[in-house]
Design brief:
2 copies of one chain form a homodimer. Chain A has helices at 22-37, 54-58, 63-70, 87-100, 120-128, 143-158, 166-176, 190-195, 223-231, 261-274, 291-300, 331-334, 339-354; strands at residues 4-11, 46-50, 77-82, 106-113, 198-200, 203-204, 214-222, 237-246, 283-285, 368-375, 380-388. By secondary structure, chain A is α/β, with parallel strands linked by helices. In chain A, the strands form 2 sheets. Chain A has a 9-stranded mixed β-sheet, with helices on both faces. The longest helix of chain A has 16 residues, at 22-37. Chain A starts with a strand and ends with a strand. β3 (77-82) of chain A pairs antiparallel with β3 of chain B.
């Protein structure tokens, strides 16, 4: 298998109805990524698009071919990948395989989602398609209500209160202040968190991600392309691990409701492939869609034992400069969670950290990033391990 | 790159509201494919699902993880691939890469589509998302009306009448009679074709595919797995070529409205990779969604010059036993076109031809099959070249 590198990234600011049409948001991100890589459209031979809801909310499918055309890549191999909120990273997984397996030398991966143009109830219904419709959606469960179940079970099982989750939201919002592309750029403190209204008890508004629009892209390429970029003083980041693992869609189908088996499996596969250990990880861009998912992700990834994930970071471990920074550019919570684009934003931000382009949120000497994107409440988990190239 | 083989196939009969739930249709096809391959679920490490409309018509996304779970494959890598009506073969393309690139030894590809449970206008609207919404869908164009534009332009440009397209429908219906899994198992003759009502002039009902439900699956595996299967007297078919190419979604965006550039490019790439020529092709499972697409596909693939595709087969070339049999098990026209499943049905049927399991429609000594699945009216074109293993 060939080595795979990220050689360029692009993103549009995460916003609310500020971006205009999806195809143009996507094309902007793709063109920015190619410009950063110093590559021309004719050097690209494949485009994989991550998207969850365009068919339901914008009457537009076949985004792969469409975005290829609009971005000046007509003719290339293209398709769309869907794994609910994990769509962006799942598209990157295909892109990784395409380069590593020798099928393409330069591939673009683009995540795009527009969620704010549709009536709120339409968007809520579209999001619920990530859950098991027959067992959950059709009896009225929404994505929010399922996360409320998880949070209340967690609180009950481990004897913690909602304030125990506050530091995840506070950290994410603090970091978003340093990211010009973030959606929610306002500081949050414990008082604000506690005063935040419950949107589905015990989930407070500040436990949940915002509905928003966004598009991001990365260019994946071979070692030769990366070396050429480096000779032109352009940085490259190596993708050392890439894995997808799955679990039950329905919460009731899981082996244990508070254990993300898919995340544990995905993490183990990616770390093994990369040949690194948890101790080597300098930052963890996790899927902080809800604060309880942050706690469960830290546990599943092996950074905290069961029941301790919620306490991880209370002493500053998750902050920039801490032992394991998370949500370093604002995370899903504050950068925003345009679902099918989120996994690609995470890769873009990890690239920024590993190439020294994350100021004022720069993690000093970051060498290894673990990046995890989750579909549903844990059904599809995509993990990438990125390493600074030298 | 490693050699890739199809080592088992499964399909449910194409029907109308006869199959029950999508997940169970998919699981049936997957289990049948594994049984035919003589493999256990634990030997599978990835599942790629082709589907276009489940989110829009059944409130269910994230089919990769869902079907993996229902089919007994929980934990494996899984995701959904969407390229409109080309989704099934696009999923197979990912599966091919996963095996050829050394990422997985045994992969299942499943295509599933349910279209008949929703109100007709809802299904029609969902199908229109394959077209360019901004340029076509939002001004009232449907998939049918766009094909009517193509057919009338073709007739005008080349001075042919609708009866010139009849033999494609007659051939497909004749072949469906020999396929127990086909949806429309009734003979059609020229008289019936000519008497068929125009659903969107000049497109007659018998130029168009039926709305239907279906699921099909193939197991892709390494040479070692294929050899072991052969030792157990199970056949294997080698995937010698695999390619996706793209073109404009909107008809008006094409270089030339009656030329399928994406199909020409996709064909050329697949043939080159396979190291075979058009003369080597013993059957061509093409995307006969509409009779005009059959004519255009024959031209784009290089089997007929521009304007002559419509006449190809009038002397029996496309029949079983002819020079280039097409739609050998009924094609999209008569086996049926459950859109996201179609590309996988085509692979299953080509497997049947190459392993001698296609009686009474068996093509004698078939060695090479070209299989082509198209998204939209030509925007995403997936071509596979299959070869009988010996």
């Amino acid at each position: 298998m060939r080595e795979v590198y990220i050689v360029g990234t692009g993103q549009v600011p995460v916003t609310k109805q500020g971006q205009g049409r999806g195809r143009h948001m996507a094309a902007r991100a793709i063109r920015a990524a190619l410009a950063e890589a110093g590559l021309e459209p004719r050097e690209v031979s494949a485009l994989y698009v991550g998207n969850m809801m365009s068919g339901m909310l914008a009457q537009q499918q076949q985004l792969g071919a469409l975005y290829a055309d609009v971005a000046g890549l007509r003719g290339v191999e293209a398709a769309t990948v869907e794994a609910a909120c994990g769509s962006g990273a799942a598209a990157a997984r295909w892109g990784y395989m395409a380069v590593a397996g020798g099928f393409h030398d330069v591939v673009v991966v683009c995540g795009m989602e527009r969620m704010t143009h549709a009536p709120k109830e339409t968007t809520t219904a579209a999001l619920a398609t990530a859950a098991d419709w027959e067992l959950e959606g059709c009896v009225g469960e929404s994505f929010l209500s399922l996360n409320a179940v998880l949070m209340s079970r967690y609180m009950e099982r481990w004897g913690v209160g909602s304030r125990d989750f506050a530091h995840f939201a506070i950290n994410a919002h603090r970091n978003a202040l340093g990211n010009p592309h973030a959606f929610l750029r306002k500081p949050v403190d414990l008082e604000a968190y506690l005063a935040s209204r419950e949107v589905a008890a015990p989930v407070k508004l500040l436990d949940a991600p915002p509905i928003c629009d966004g598009a991001a892209a990365v260019v994946l390429a071979t070692r030769d392309v990366a070396r050429a970029a480096e000779r032109a003083s352009r940085p490259a980041v190596r993708v050392r691990g890439s894995a997808i693992a799955t679990d039950s869609l329905a919460l009731k189908g899981r082996r244990e409701i508070l254990t993300l088996d898919g995340a544990a499996l995905s993490t183990a596969r990616a770390l093994e492939q990369a040949g690194v250990t948890r101790d080597d990880v300098d930052l963890f861009e996790l899927h902080d869609a809800y604060t309880v998912i942050t706690a469960l992700s830290l546990e599943a990834a092996g950074f905290a034992p069961p029941g301790r994930g919620v306490h991880f970071g209370k002493d500053g471990e998750i902050a920039i400069g801490g032992r394991l920074p998370i949500s370093t550019m604002g995370g899903l919570k504050a950068r925003g969670h345009p679902v099918g684009a989120t996994g690609v934003y995470q890769l873009v931000e990890s690239w920024q950290q590993l190439t020294g382009a994350a100021a004022p949120n720069q993690i000093p000497d970051a060498e290894i990033a673990m990046v995890q994107n989750i579909g549903g409440t844990g059904a599809t988990v995509v993990t990438h391990i990125l390493a600074r190239a030298r």
